[in-house]
Amino acid sequence: MADIVVSSAFDTLSNSLATLLFYSDDALSSALNTKQAEFVRALKAMKEDGELPWLPVPSSMAAEATTNFVPTTAAEKWPPELPPIRNPQLKQQAFTHSSFILGESASMPGVENVHYERLEFLGDAYLQSISSHLLFTRFPKFREGQLSEMRQQLVSNQPLAEFARLYDMDNQIRQGRGQEVHKSQPKIVADCFEAYIGAIVLDADTIDEGVQMAREWLKALFEPKIQDMELQRKTLVPVDKMAKQTLNAVAGGNRAKIEYRWTGGAGGNKGGFWVSVFLNGWGFEDKYLGKGWGSSKSDAELRAAMNVLADEELCKEIKEAKSRILGPRPTPGSRPPRGREKKEVKASSKI
């Protein structure tokens, strides 16, 4: 009886934890206290390193997974829908690791069309081309060295494995007995992701249609990371040491609190710091204003404040809300009546 209870409790824990780990750092920081959010971020890091291979990936969460990416239209969702593979043999090949083919069969003619290595080769080529073109057109003033570094943030094994897990690809890989534990390794999951891209291209009626389908899907999928890169590259602009004070003058006050929260990055030379800004007051409750990246926490806070101040529409919205509560500010040159003037104002009001 105890075995059943423990097993059931563990299943419940696994599903709850898998759901929790799908939420963005901003969402976690907003809903949890600092220690709780740091604990969940540590678990997310363990999952990304493949240390929690037993965690399920609820399919319902894949469609609801959120990041700091804000869709441009109400109908747009992230992650975007996975392009289907119509050919069942091609789809099976995209998820078949070479270890699945046992013994002498591994050297038989035609085996190269059973596992995904050829599809991976093709998919990697299209992935490099599509991601290069996306960055080339999005950042017209960046040199090739910067673009290469940014492309690595999209197409290296770790980010590709993260993208693949959004679609539960890691749990669909077919491997030989005793090899299942390697499903959690980022390289194997990333290879499967590249193979799926190759299958998308081959499955379409024409190569051009397949490439276009892959391009549209990857463009939408990469958008949150590209937005993060745009924010990171703003660090080329000198830090405004007065940004936090300026933002406090715009949005702060006795009735409002501006809070800076560390919401991403492992710190220092392990990915720097992502800091998000939240506002409580003037009718707003834990309103997310923006974020910034820096190699130190203090720089990240200043960058975050700079990015908020650069959003003119947001600052206008906050100023209007603040004005509704505090009332109009005195016009320049005017001053409140004092002393004798007060008495004269009182007397005149009685007449």
UniProtKB/TrEMBL annotation:
One of its GO terms (molecular function) is ribonuclease III activity. This is ribonuclease III. GO terms for cellular component: nucleoplasm. Keywords: Endonuclease, Hydrolase, Nuclease, RNA-binding. It catalyses: Endonucleolytic cleavage to 5'-phosphomonoester. It comes from Sphaerosporella brunnea. Residues 85-205 form the RNase III domain. It is an enzyme of class 3 (hydrolase). Residues 320-351 are annotated as: Disordered. The keyword Cell inner membrane does not apply.
